[in-house]
Specification:
The structure holds two protein chains of two kinds. In chain A, about 65% of the residues lie in helices and about 5% in strands. By secondary structure, chain A is mainly alpha-helical. Classes of the chains: A mainly alpha, B alpha/beta.
Chain lengths: ~190, ~150
């Protein structure tokens, strides 16, 4: 049951809506010292990486909703919100670890923490973390300590995986912006 | 999943140009103990531009929401979380209704259906919606507000 929720490749199509560099774009250096073609390559790399996050189930459409909220008045909105998620979630994972180490485990308390983590992971579109929490809650309801311990490990694994992915994503975005490019907006056009 | 139907893009993709019919002011109180939720809802409200002037205020629990009202503030819409420390959404809603607060109070919670959620509705909510709110849901709330004027 655990495994079936964590290998969910999706077949979906994406549309990136941004002007890409074409072969006819002048190759003169911009102020950042990069060529139009290099910026284009960076954009394509970012788009492909972002697509992979959806294809591998790390992210769902909620993340796109967050991206749509970002604008010139708040250009770091997504980074800020995702950072909040990671800060809060690290604490929740620590609380969960402590709660499950108690002699008499309070499964209601454990469930409350998992519920919160499920909610916040859902808020940023961290689909695999959310799915892991769903399974975790089932074991909390059954008061199955062994199941809960396994789920905690699974949630932690998914959490650190998606954290790593976000770090890569934001690094690619920063590099692109520093090179004078713009971040393409993604839309899921079909599944 | 993301629906491409309603973009939030500086109002450009709002269904039609209703600037002549747009309400003058919209004030919303966002009551939630999670900063992430408050931040996202605030941003969503500011981008949707559902009134010529949109004011948002936040509170981290039910008691703060009550204190705001006791100090004279009033709001068109209150987005109320259920599970909060100090004073939860159910108690806060009961208190606000006992104070004859006429705002539209919308429960916003990821709690599944059950006794807690029923009690929340019975406390005096106008509606209960799942977290996080979407652009469509917020627009629908404002439309309801307009109809009930």
């Amino acid at each position: 049951m655990l495994e079936s929720l964590f290998s969910t490749p999706k077949i979906c199509q994406f549309k990136a809506t941004s002007s890409f560099v074409t072969p006819h774009t002048p190759l003169s250096l911009n102020r950042q010292g990069t060529t139009g073609m290099e910026v284009g390559q960076m954009q394509r790399r970012l788009v492909e990486f972002t697509k992979s996050l959806f294809m591998e189930g790390f992210l769902d459409g909620q993340f796109l909703q967050l991206q749509q909220l970002q604008d010139e008045s708040n250009p770091d909105f997504v980074v800020e919100v995702v950072s909040l998620f990671f800060q809060d979630s690290e604490k929740l994972l620590n609380d969960l670890t402590l709660a499950l180490e108690q002699q008499n485990v309070d499964f209601k308390r454990v469930d409350a923490h998992v519920h919160q983590l499920k909610g916040s992971s859902s808020s940023i579109g961290a689909q695999r973390v959310k799915n892991a929490c769903v399974v975790f809650r089932n074991f909390c309801e059954e008061q199955n300590l062994e199941g809960c311990m396994r789920c905690l490990q699974q949630v932690k694994q998914e959490f650190y995986l998606v954290k790593n992915k976000f770090e890569t994503l934001f690094t690619l975005e920063q590099q692109l912006v520093a090179a004078g490019g713009s971040i393409p907006t993604m839309e899921i056009t079909s599944f | 999943m993301a629906s491409p139907s309603t973009r939030i893009d500086d109002g450009r993709d709002v269904d039609s140009d209703n600037s002549g019919l747009m309400r003058e002011k919209l004030s919303v109180l966002i009551v939630d103990d999670e900063l992430l939720v408050r931040k996202v809802h605030e941003k969503l409200l500011s981008k949707l531009k559902l009134a010529k002037q949109v004011q948002t205020q936040t509170a981290t629990n039910g008691k703060e929401a009550l204190d705001l009202h006791l100090s004279g503030s009033s709001f068109d819409i209150i987005l109320m979380d259920l599970q909060m420390p100090i004073m939860d959404g159910t108690e806060a809603t009961k208190e606000l209704r006992a104070m004859r607060v006429e705002s539209m109070i919308v429960g916003v919670t990821s709690v599944d259906a059950g006794a807690d959620k029923e009690a929340f509705m019975e406390a005096g909510l106008d509606k209960c919606l799942p977290k996080l709110l979407t652009a469509d849901k917020i627009k629908s709330l404002v439309e309801t507000l307009e109809k009930n004027k």
